[in-house]
């Protein structure tokens, strides 16, 4: 191509992220959404498959979980060869898979400095419509094994209620208290996707030094498929782009602010694909400034 020799391409060679998640063949959620978010942010993405779904914008028809042994072998193969700067988990399916993933991540943490590979856990257990996706044994596995390893967890309101085993009120004080209670399960930081509050889309973020509410405009568009997956994936991507030598709290807050803005843009400009709840516009997930 004429003039191509004058082009400059900037690549962050150490910006590598791994998603451990389920597959959505329609491309709106799951590991497909995660890889798109990684790519849009200039991050090299890798994926360990935990489960297969038969789904589209109209709903999920079938779920087939992979064996914990096969999932563990995938994780070993990746981590022994290409070390990521950040790992995020999505749909894990059952207690045995959660325990397997936690065991592999714990072993990794014993070999490296924790700041060299941050862990973001999106505890996919309840859909945005309130439908339960995992059983009580899996919730207990999250409590006991995976949440204590996390640098950040990103539950929605329904998932937070299931983790806390109680309802969460709609007042700001209720949301702040719930977010702090979630931190008692062991993660360093919590980002609660609180949903609609006073006409705004609200998130509550807490870590050892701060407790804040983060709001953006709320759009009435129903095409939000994959928004939660994409939020945690953009956070993981921005963490992978940051330096392990920098202050972790600063890295986390900057990644979260960027991701919330990026996903909000992607919801606003959703392409309206499919006949149901369509995907967000993943091609805009690098616009978070």
Secondary structure layout:
Blueprint: E1 16-23, H1 30-40, E2 44-56, E3 59-65, H2 68-79, E4 86-89, H3 95-111, E5 118-121, H4 136-146, E6 152-153, H5 157-164, H6 172-183, E7 189-197, E8 200-207, E9 210-217, H7 227-241, H8 248-268
Parallel strand pairs: 1-2, 1-4, 4-5, 5-6, 6-7
Antiparallel strand pairs: 2-3, 7-8, 8-9
CATH fold type: UDP-N-acetylmuramoyl-L-alanine:D-glutamate ligase
Strand order of the largest sheet: 3-2-1-4-5-6-7-8-9
The chain-level structural class is alpha/beta
Head-to-tail CA distance between termini: 32 Å
Task: Provide the CATH architecture.
Answer: 3-Layer(aba) Sandwich
CATH hierarchy, class: Alpha Beta
Number of helices: 8
- SSE pattern, N- to C-terminal: EHEEHEHEHEHHEEEHH
Q: Give the mean pLDDT.
A: 94
Uncertain runs are none
Helix content: 25-40%
| CATH level-four homologous superfamily name | Ribokinase
Number of domains: 1
How much is the radius of gyration in Å?
18 Å
Tally the beta strands. Answer: 9
Main beta sheet, described? 9 strands, mixed
| Beta fraction | 15-25%
Shape: globular
GO biological process, one term: thiamine biosynthetic process
GO cellular component, one term: cytosol
Keywords: ATP-binding, Kinase, Nucleotide-binding, Transferase
InterPro entries: HMP/HMP-P_kinase_dom (IPR004399), PM/HMP-P_kinase-1 (IPR013749), Ribokinase-like (IPR029056)
């Amino acid at each position: 191509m004429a003039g191509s020799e004058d082009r400059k391409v900037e690549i962050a060679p150490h910006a590598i992220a791994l998603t451990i998640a389920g597959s959505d063949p329609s491309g709106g959620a799951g590991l497909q959404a995660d890889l798109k978010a990684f790519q849009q942010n200039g991050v090299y993405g890798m994926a360990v498959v935990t489960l297969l779904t038969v789904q589209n914008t109209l709903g999920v028809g079938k779920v087939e979980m992979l064996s914990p042994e096969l999932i563990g072998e995938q994780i070993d193969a990746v981590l022994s060869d290409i070390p990521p700067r950040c790992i995020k988990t999505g749909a894990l399916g059952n207690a045995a898979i959660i325990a397997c993933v936690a065991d592999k991540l714990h072993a990794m943490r014993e070999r490296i400095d924790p700041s060299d590979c941050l862990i973001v856990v999106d505890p996919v257990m309840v859909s945005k419509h309130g439908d339960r996706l995992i059983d009580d044994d899996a919730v207990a596995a999250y409590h006991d094994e995976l949440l204590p390893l996390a640098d950040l967890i990103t539950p929605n309101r329904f998932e937070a209620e299931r983790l806390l085993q109680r309802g969460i009120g709609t007042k700001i004080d209720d949301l702040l208290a719930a977010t702090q209670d979630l931190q008692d399960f062991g993660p360093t930081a919590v980002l609660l996707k609180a949903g609609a509050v006073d006409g705004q889309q609200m998130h509550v973020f807490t870590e050892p030094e701060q407790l804040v509410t983060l709001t953006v405009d709320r759009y009435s568009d129903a095409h939000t498929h994959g928004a939660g997956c994409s939020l945690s994936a953009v956070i993981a991507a921005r963490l992978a782009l940051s330096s392990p030598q920098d202050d972790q709290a600063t890295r986390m807050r900057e990644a979260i602010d960027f991701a919330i803005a990026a996903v909000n843009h992607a919801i606003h400009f959703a392409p309206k694909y499919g006949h149901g709840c369509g995907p967000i516009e993943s091609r805009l997930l690098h616009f978070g400034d």
